[in-house]
């Protein structure tokens, strides 16, 4: 959401209502696309049954908006424990006495009706939780995040395709440069002004980077294939020690969902088997694969600080933009976000979404692995609860930035931080490369 400084409470309410409707339309589409049997089945041990995600979306909404913000009686306090993500690992969720699909749908509808009433009657000021509609924005983002998770479940599901979308547009303009220099020095990282930014993105602070080069586009399938063909998966030189152990243990040989056929590599994408498109960003690779590719290519992954500077720093003004292209919210010309398409766009797409330094596709298409651990920014304060971010600090996570084609614009920002285990491949993650600048390359 844009900065709400100039919005009246009524305008904030309208935006909240619109975002709540959009996220619910998406959740409904993702769960109505399959039959009852598919909804309750676990398509992968990595994922919850879709019906768990649906009721969990409703339960979080009830906890925060109906009970906390609204001060209303519980709709169903008997199910809180079932849908507490910290109580049950994903692998164990199918065995729980979960709400049946019909019950889950009724439940989320009942909660939502009460939430619209709460939205009408709650002054959006006074309490930090409701200032600028924050709690509502947090719940919108939560639902959209689970929608992306449900989209990943759809990708893991076997059977005939049930999701359909147009292909993304192809860039007409050629790429001016393969890599660009990001100047060294300080820039403003994080935010203290985005009304719906989450605790881990706060506060805005000065961060320093040495001058470095970053690729203007993510690594493509075609480039990644060259790594496979060169024996990259069989050469421990390119892998970290832990990465190599994982490559061996999990028997990784190619991105997830790829299969080698007599006529080359194929992949399965939401139930469709197709030739691997060479000009699309590679997706469904884990951090270790990204890092091995980077070593083989003689480069490295960017750190999270570097990624954000490449995305937000405007050398003309010295300030950090909200988004790579400027301060206005994403439109379809800027980025492949919001599940409008069911695939990343070819590398070099979205010239209108380029950063001030000329880096493309930072938002949307594929989440980008960064070579950084999850750490709090200086001045971090947990809000509204420790379980949002703080309990994950210092864990076995690597950072992911920028969102994917399956990320909604309401659930990502120039400052948005995502993280996951370095072995995860079911998420829509790829990467781009960076390298140090040599002294003679820095003006
Ligand atoms: Fe959740």
Automatic annotation (TrEMBL):
Sulfatase-modifying factor enzyme-like domain segment(s): 178-435
Source superkingdom: Bacteria
InterPro entries membership: CTDL_fold, DinB-like, DinB/YfiT-like, EgtB, EgtB_Actinobacteria, Sulfatase_Mod_Factor_Kinase, SUMF_dom, SUMF_sf
Binding-site list for Fe cation: 56, 142, 146
Enzyme Commission number(s): 1.14.99.50
Cofactor(s), by name: Fe(2+)
UniProt domain DinB-like: residue ranges: 19-150
Single annotated GO MF: gamma-glutamyl hercynylcysteine sulfoxide synthase activity
Keyword Flavoprotein: no
Keyword Signal belongs to the record: no
Annotated catalysed reactions: gamma-L-glutamyl-L-cysteine + hercynine + O2 = gamma-L-glutamyl-hercynylcysteine S-oxide + H2O
Binding site for gamma-L-glutamyl-L-cysteine: 90-93, 420, 424
Pathway(s) this gene product operates in, as recorded in its UniProt entry: Amino-acid biosynthesis; ergothioneine biosynthesis
Keywords recorded for this protein, A-Z: Iron, Kinase, Metal-binding, Monooxygenase, Oxidoreductase, Transferase
UniProt family annotation: Belongs to the EgtB family.
Function recorded in the entry: Catalyzes the oxidative sulfurization of hercynine (N-alpha,N-alpha,N-alpha-trimethyl-L-histidine) into hercynyl-gamma-L-glutamyl-L-cysteine sulfoxide, a step in the biosynthesis pathway of ergothioneine.
UniProt name for this protein: Hercynine oxygenase
The species this protein was found in: Actinokineospora spheciospongiae
Annotated gene: egtB
